[in-house]
Specification:
The chain has twelve helices and twelve strands. With 448 residues, it is an alpha+beta fold. The longest helix is centred in the middle third of the chain and has 61 residues. Helix 5 packs parallel to helix 6 and helix 6 runs antiparallel to helix 7. Helices cover 50% and strands 19% of the residues. About 4% of the residues have low confidence. Among the domains are: 132 residues, 2-Layer Sandwich (Beta-Lactamase); 151 residues, Heat Shock Protein 90 (2-Layer Sandwich). Strand 11 and strand 12 form a beta hairpin. The strands form three sheets. A five-stranded antiparallel sheet has the order 2-1-5-4-3. Strands 7-9-10-12-11 form a five-stranded mixed sheet. Strands 6-8 form a two-stranded antiparallel ribbon.
Length: 448
Amino acid sequence: MLRNRRDEITKGINDIVGEHGIISVRILNHSGVIKFSSNEAEINKHISRTDELCTNCHYKKESESIYPANTAYSSHFHRDSNLIYTSLPIYNSPTCYNADCHESANNNIAMNNSLPKSVHDSSQTILGFIEMKVSAKKIMADLNRTRIELITLTIVIALLAAGISYISITLLVGRPVKKMVEGMQRVAEGNFNEEIPPGKGELGFLATSFNLMQKKLSSAQTRLIESAKLASIGKLANEIANEINNPLTGIIIYVESLINRSNDEEERRDLELILSQAMQIRDNVRNIFSGNVEKKPRFTTVDIMAIVRHVVSVLGNLSNFKSIQTNISTHNDLPAILADPEMIEQAIFALFLAFSEDMPTGGLLDVNAEYIEKDKKIQIKFMDTGNAIPENEWLVLTEEKGELPTTGTSKIGLTLFVFKQIIELHRGKIAFESRKEEGKLVVVLLPA
């Protein structure tokens, strides 16, 4: 307007008509003359002072206005025509009343060679109005469409949120819980081998705790099975002990009767040997029967070489031992040692029997003993000319805490292993040497 570009103003008015429910637009000056309008037929027409646009502003007096200073707009709704009338006042401002915007003013300035004069006086507050007619139906349709779009968007967002929540819950909660349930079912069926993959957070901690519980249950189950096996073995041992003990009692009584009736000294000595061995068997059977399998040693002073000679004299009557040449020698006087005579005798018995079985066609069994004074120990060397010890068993026997398997181990290997345990129980040390062509060497050191 300041540059009086009427074509641009008309074009701008026509452009906005039809948008957002706008039906018409017109610009009026303060005198009520329509200067611009989307309806060209009403341009330069004068509206009545009784027109609602005027009465909305003025009361009876022309100078009175209901528009306070800088009021933005005024609007009213015609229910009958379903239209909204909106008027926007055009206020006078320094850029307007000081502007050189009209041709007449420009001509006066050129003719008088004076300073620019304003077309509008600065005392005039309102220069005119912009009035628009807007379709309330169109606005309501737009509002309804916007409402539907908002509702649709809300539903879509809710569905997306529900889907994301479902997927998240399924991945973070559903699957771990399902694996927990499957793990519990496996445990209920007795399968303790498969672990639940540990995750993160509380469910991960729960999975780790469940795996730990599963391991403990597996260990407990293993112990129960072993206990059941041991109970079965104990029951079988008791039955075997009873079967052995009954005829053994009769043998002991009969041998004692023979000793009392015998007058032959050599015969009595043989019978007493039989009686002592039978009573030793009875004691062992009683230990098994009472569950006291592990016998604690009863230490007393013994002559270990006397025990060796006694074992040789007893075994000398065996057919497979008669073909074996036995040499027993001592380098010096041996002091007595603290030992359990029964355990030492059993160990030497087992050792000599194993040696004899390794020499079925005969051979040499050499026992050499000496006292090492500086160490306060007795050293005994047991040597034979039998078969060598298997290499895998030999490696275990030479280890400090080696364990031989109970199955697949040779008799000589098991015998040497038990012999080693008994010697170590007497605070002794033992060394082995296996010679393929010269047999075996067992060296024993016992504290004197």
